[in-house]
Each structure stands twice: as C-alpha cells, then as structure tokens.
Write a structure and sequence with these properties.
Layout (H helix, E strand, L loop, with lengths): L7 E5 L6 H12 L2 E4 H10 L3 H11 L6 H12 L2 H4 L3 E4 L5 H11 L6 E6 L2 H10 L7 H15 L1 H8 L3 E5 L4 H15 L2 H6 L1
Parallel strand pairs: 1-3, 1-4, 2-3, 4-5
Helix pairs in contact: 1-10, 2-3, 4-6
The structure holds adenosine monophosphate.
Length: about 200
C-alpha cells in the first residue's frame, strides 16, 4: 500500500475570513500539517525567540513581517520532508507575490495542488473581528491589515488563477457549511492517486 498523501494547499482570504478555522479542519480531515505563519510568530514571541520578538513589532502595528523573515521560517519547516510529504495547509502564507514566488522555489517541481480563496465581504469580517479577542485586533491594526490585504495579498488571486490553481468559495455562513464547500472544491481538483505516484 502506498503512503498517505494529502493535498498541498494554500488558503487565501481577508483576516476574519475563517482561514484558521478551516485550515484546522482540513488538517484533521487529511491528517496533515496546518502551518500558520502568524501562529508560529505568536508562539515564538511568547517563548522569547528573537525572530519572534522582531516579528511581533510588525504584527502589533498591523504591518507585514518582512518577507525575508517569513520566508526563512517557512523554508526551515519545509526543509524537513516529513512536513511536506503528507500534504499540508498553509494559512496566512504567502501574503505577497514575492512570498508566492519563494514558495514555488521551496516546494520544487510538484508545487501546490489547490489554492482556496475564502471570499467574505468586508462588513462580515469586521463583525467577526469585533468578536475575536486577539492582541493585534485594534481598530488601527484591523484597518491597516485590510489595506495591506488589498494591496499586497489580493494580487495573489490573479497570480494563482493564471497558474490554474485557484478556486474561490463563498465564506459566508456556518462553519460546517463552509467546510463542506472547501472540501468539495478540493475533491474536485485533487486526485490522491496521482499525488501518490508524483
Ligand atoms: P495571522 O495570524 O495570519 O492573522 O497573522 C498575524 C500577523 O502576523 C499579520 O498581521 C502579520 O503581521 C504577520 N504575518 C503572518 N503571516 C505573514 C506573512 N506571510 N507575511 C507577512 N506577515 C505575516
């Protein structure tokens, strides 16, 4: 019997679109890693790791952590085949076109399988963020992160559409319903048997 291979996924979407929640559920479903660069930075800042503390200065202002730091963290994780081979779901990375190009280089030939854009209107994410209780969810921080999403991250929708990897799903509604939509979109595009022989 061949080894278990899950899909290689990226989730795109505004803050509050539900990327973290959906990424966790996908990781459980496919028995693979959920990698959130934001969570990695929060954990390493809490542990007093210098790169994490440096990242936190940007995060607290709602700014993006410089590509060099983020890419180094992801490259280090993915240097271990055990992190990549079972499949993975990336949440919050890439966030810039440069990061997407770097990710291609890190992954090599097989690359990504599916990029899911979780689409939620601005008013809905603002309501959801108001109910969240995270240190960087200040009014200014939220406004700045939405601005940066539009200018830096949204261009990735076209980037991945051109590469025929993109699927957009409606992220409004119950968590279970969104999960079913995301799974259906992945199942329609990812063939585990083909991934196994790759
Ligand atoms: P998140 O947990 O995805 O909402 O990320 C929280 C914060 O971490 C962001 O507002 C950024 O400051 C930083 N961050 C996380 N991922 C990235 C990334 N790929 N590029 C730049 N900054 C990031």
């Amino acid at each position: 019997m061949s080894a278990h291979r899950g899909p290689r996924l990226v989730l795109l979407g505004k803050q509050g679109a539900g990327k973290g929640t959906q990424a966790e559920r996908l990781a459980a479903h496919f028995r693979m890693q959920h990698l959130s660069t934001g969570q990695l930075f929060r954990d390493s800042a809490a542990a007093g790791v210098p790169a994490g503390l440096e990242a936190k200065e940007y995060m607290d202002r709602g700014e993006l952590v410089p590509d060099k730091i983020v890419v180094a963290v992801v490259a280090e994780r993915f240097a271990n085949p055990a992190e990549v081979d079972p499949g993975f779901v990336l949440d919050g990375f890439p966030r810039t076109e440069n990061q997407a190009i770097e990710l291609d280089g890190i992954l090599g030939e097989r690359g990504l399988d599916v990029v899911v854009d979780i689409d939620v209107p601005r008013e809905v994410v603002l309501d959801r963020l108001a109910a969240r209780n995270r240190e960087d969810d200040t009014e200014d921080g939220i406004r700045r992160r939405l601005e940066l999403y539009e200018s830096e991250t949204k261009p990735l929708v076209d980037f991945y559409r051109e590469r025929r990897l993109l699927v957009t799903i409606d992220g409004v509604g119950e968590e279970d319903d969104v999960h079913r939509r995301v799974l259906a979109a992945i199942d329609a595009r990812f063939d585990p048997l083909r991934a196994d022989s790759a």
